[in-house]
Structures are given as C-alpha cells and as structure tokens.
Amino acid sequence: MALKQHRNEKKYHDPLHMKDKKPFSFSRRQFIDTAVKVSAVGGLAYIQMSGCGSEENEIAPPPENKHVFLSKPYLHTLEHQHMCIRWLTNKQSLSWVEYGETNDLNKKAIQIEDGLVTTHQRIHEIYLRDLEPGKTYYYRVASKEITAYRSLETPYGETIYSSTYSFTTADPAATETGLLVLNDLHDRPESFAQLLQLNGNDPYDFVFLNGDMFNYQSGEEQILEHLLTPCTNLFATQKPLLFVRGNHETRGNFAQHLKDYFAYPQGLFFHFQRGPVFAIVLDTGEDKADDHPAYAGMANFNAYRQQQAVWLEQLMKTEAYKNATYKVVFMHIPPFYCNQPVAPGEMHCNELFAPLFNQYKVDLVISGHTHKYGVHPPVSGKHNYPIIIGGGPDNGTRTLMKIKANSKTLTVQMINDENKPAGSYTLNAS
C-alpha cells in the first residue's frame, strides 16, 4: 500500500510498494537552490532581495565557482573520549576541525590515512581523539577547496568556515543517561521538529534513529533535505546522531552509499555504553526474501543477519555486557509482533535473535517497522523481556520515545504526535 503523502511534500518512491511510479529526482537548479539554502549555516548564503512589487524573496544560487557547505556539521560517537564530526561541501576540499575548551579554538584536527592527509572529499569526516570525558568543547569546521592536484603543486581555492558550536563528551562514570528515539518517518522531514518538540526542555544525551527514515535511497540530495538538514537545525551540531538502517534503507540505487554518511567504526551494527545502559544495535536488513525479484539476485541478508547473530552471542559473553545494569537492544524489525503475514526477513530475525535475547537475558528491545506503536510486556517462554515498538509516518501514528536510565530505574515514555501518552514501561535495576 502506498504511504500517504503530506501536502506539499516531495515523495521518494519505493518500487517494492509503489507501482508505476518513478523515483524522485531533482533538477540541477533545484539541487543548487537546496544547497544554497543549506549553505547559509556557514555564513555563506547568497540572498537576493526582490523588488517591492515581488511576491517573495528569492534565494539566488551562488556563482558556479563558489565553494559552499551543503550541510552543517553533525556529530557521531560511540565512545567517551572521541567525537566524529561529519559535514558536506559542494566541492572537493582539504578539511579540518578547529576546537578547544573555549571559543579560542586553540587546537586543530585533520584526518590522515596511510601517511596522507585526506583530501579530494566532499563528505568530510574528522575524529577528535583523546578528549576528556564529561567536558564541553567548542568547535568549527573548515574546508579549503582543491582546484587541481598535480605533482609538487596543489592549487587551493576558497576556504570556508562554519559557525562555532559546542558539545559535551560522555562520561563513563555517569550514573544516568537520556536519549530520544524516532523511527519510520519515511521521507517526512517536517516530522523531526514536530516530534522532537514533544520532548519539551527535558535533557537528553543523543538522538537515535531506529530505521526507515526514508522510503527508497535515491541520492545525496534526499539525505540532505530529508535528514541532515532538519537534524542539524535541531540538534546534531551539538548532540550525537546515531542511526541504524531499516528495511527501506536497503532499497534503491543509492543504498550502498548510505554508510558514507552514517557508518561507525564498528560497522553498520554496533554497541556502545551510556551511563548504566549497555546498548546493542542490530541492522535487521530487508524484510523481503533474498530472492525477491526487486533485488535481481543482489541481496544476501540471511548471511548478513547470521553474521550478526555470531557477533551478538560473542558480545553477550563479555564482562561488560554481563555487568551492565540495563541491557537494551535497538533493532528496526522487532523479534515479535510484526504485521501478518510475517515476511521472510521478519521470521529470520525471530529465529536468529529471539533465542539469544532470552538466553542472555536482555532487559528491553526497542523497535519500529510495523507502523503500529505498542508496549508488549514480557511473555514467559516467548520473550522474557518487554518489546516496545514505535509508530509510523502518518499523522496520528507518529511517536517519540524518551528513555531515561539511572542506577535505580530505566523508564521508557512513548508520546504520540498529539502529545498524548502512547505507552510506557519501567525497569527496576536488579
């Protein structure tokens, strides 16, 4: 069934669900206009005021040779002492981060691989390493255009700088943490602001996107317009953005490039610890069978999930996992309570992961996928842990999850897009 389209919304079609539709595409002018709008975050907007008789102002594209940011910087981290900062430019560049404990920004970080400074990139990734846990740092990013690259000669173009932002590193000694969870927005960028405002002024450490932020991977402009721009405008310049694929992120001619924008040192499935929470993130892949005609023999998610099951059991045998106060799994496809009939990929998740969750005593599973929010308490012999499933993309079905944990309790509060309770659950520390 086709997903409902909001008024004035551009659609990125999913050919597995929408027949006789073409993937969304930008004209070159549309993309330049979008890039310029985004570039305003670095102080490089080119705004042309129309005459008094005009109906609206026009954001004019910059000269063809102008170097601009396509996104604000956005933060990724799984660790306490490192921070990964990514951003995009419209031209290949030599980039760096200026940072420090004050606005003086007295330190500089560059990316080096195999003895060479990373250059000729438009997607920039810089790691700030050996930071002090629990400390606030200020930073800005810089990109110097590379106009040519010849032996013993590297002409440079314009250097552009972002605004100055700040972040606070996680503290491994912290006894509490808070995070927000979104899922299944399906190319509705307006939902980020509408749902995150439901949090009010409650503090949180990071935002977790639990899959299906898109319908179908069509290109970079979709990632910019429908995820990076709303997230960086709202939080991602100051609080880490964590993201795991849903089944829709495995689809489309740009699907294999998604990890260029969101991958982590451990890969697309990973674990991390925040305060008393030991978090495991599984990449559940496609819900369709590997031999579905849409993949034309180019999918092997069964083997990929089996690889994760081996990794998962090894991880669950570690002392860090065993000693954690709360063991929480994030996975887009839930191990139970999928819509009927159960799809092959959904069944495979149940067969592989559910027995391990029971055997190694996970405390909680957070999922999406079904577009039907719900709180499912433990069922002895089936799943000895609660499963909380977030809502869908349409008005009336969207949800925000607020997770807070301290040394005594972990609470999940789910709110629907009408700012009404959609379910809650509390775990007591053992």
How would you describe this protein?
The chain is globular, with a radius of gyration of 22 Å. With 430 residues, it is an alpha+beta fold. Strands 3, 4, 5, 8, 9, 10 and 11 form a 7-stranded antiparallel beta sheet that branches. Strands 14-13-12-21-22-23 form a 6-stranded mixed beta sheet. Strand 3 and strand 4 (83-100) form a beta hairpin. It has 2 domains: 81-168, Immunoglobulin-like (Sandwich); 177-428, 4-Layer Sandwich (Purple Acid Phosphatase, chain A, domain 2), CATH 3.60.21. The protein is built from 7 helices and 23 strands. Helix 2 (190-196) packs parallel to helix 3 (220-234).
Stretches with pLDDT under 50, minimum 5 residues: 1-12, 18-61
Task: Round the mean pLDDT to the nearest integer and report it.
Answer: 87
CATH superfamily of the largest domain: Metallo-dependent phosphatases
| SSE succession | HEEEEEEEEEEEEHEHEHEEHHEHEEEEEE
Number of alpha- plus pi-helical segments: 7
The count of DSSP E runs of length 2 or more, i.e. the number of strands, is 23
C-alpha-based Rg, rounded: 22 Å
Number of domains: 2
What's the CATH architecture name of the largest domain?
4-Layer Sandwich
Principal-axis shape: globular
Structural class: alpha+beta
**Largest sheet at a glance?**
7 strands, antiparallel
- CATH fold-level label of the largest domain: Purple Acid Phosphatase, chain A, domain 2
Helicity range: 10-25%
